[in-house]
Write a structure and sequence with these properties.
Mean pLDDT: 85
Structural class: alpha+beta
Helix content: 25-40%
Number of strands: 8
Length: 247
């Protein structure tokens, strides 16, 4: 998210506990080996983000919270060197994420070179190896700005096209019915293209239904937990029998 990275194990947690949390949250419908693998590698990715320039909130020597940019300016130890991040929950760490995509794009550009980066190309079909139909060897797409078609060859591929939005009718009404947390152009390509070439689809029976507030279409994000939103305060006062205007 823009305010927090939602999975960072850190030295104070165990990967097995993370797997247990995911298993409980999703009522047991998980592949524990895949979740464990994610937990084993995610911290390195977060530390890479920090090395690339992502400001991550940290605790100073006295245990005070330091904003991500201030932590960089003050030269606090990196997470990889024992620095302690600020948590908004057990598994999250707070960030200044407004430049997230720019930072990652810059790292990709430096790693690959601009000659190897193609933008605004719409991928429509995956290609399989002629000698091994169980192996992906490339993809076909077209430019959304020019009259050009592209055929890419590869030895390995990562598909990250987002999820599927508006498959189910939302509970929102009126103007809110057309709003969604994820962008509406997430049309399921991540699932459709591999399925078309016979890929094994794992855990498709698992469905994520995030909580929402009235008149709000975004996620229950880090700032709600940090600031304890007004809705939480009102509910707490009701439970304790207090008047809404008191205390």
């Amino acid at each position: 998210g823009s305010s927090a990275i939602n999975t960072y194990i850190g030295p104070e947690n165990k990967i097995a506990d993370y797997v247990k949390m995911v298993r409980t949250d999703l009522m047991g419908i998980i592949r524990e080996d895949l979740v464990y693998s994610l937990g084993a590698h995610v911290d390195q990715s977060v530390q890479d983000f920090q090395d690339w320039g992502l400001p991550i909130w940290q605790k100073d020597a006295e245990g005070h919270t330091v904003d991500g940019q201030a932590a960089k300016d003050e030269g606090l130890p990196r997470l990889a060197d024992g620095g302690k991040c600020v948590r908004s929950g057990r598994w999250q760490c707070m960030i200044n994420g407004e430049s997230y995509k720019v930072i990652v794009a810059e790292a990709a550009k430096n790693a690959l070179g601009m000659d190897n980066i193609y933008e605004r190309v719409f991928i429509v079909k995956l290609l399989t190896d002629k000698a091994n139909s169980n192996r992906v060897c490339g993809a076909v797409g077209f430019s959304v700005r020019e009259h050009k078609a592209y055929v890419f060859k590869c030895k390995a591929m990562i598909i990250a096209c987002g999820g599927v939005v508006n498959v189910f009718r939302p509970r929102s009404v009126g103007e809110g019915q057309g709003r969604a947390w994820y962008p509406v152009w997430n049309a399921g390509s991540t699932y459709a293209m591999p399925a078309e070439i016979g890929a094994k689809m794992v855990l498709m029976e698992n469905r994520f239904v995030p909580a929402r507030f009235k008149d709000g279409y975004g996620p229950v994000g880090a700032w709600f937990f940090v600031l304890q939103g007004a809705g939480h305060q009102r509910l707490r006062r009701r439970l304790h029998g207090q008047k809404l205007g008191s205390g």
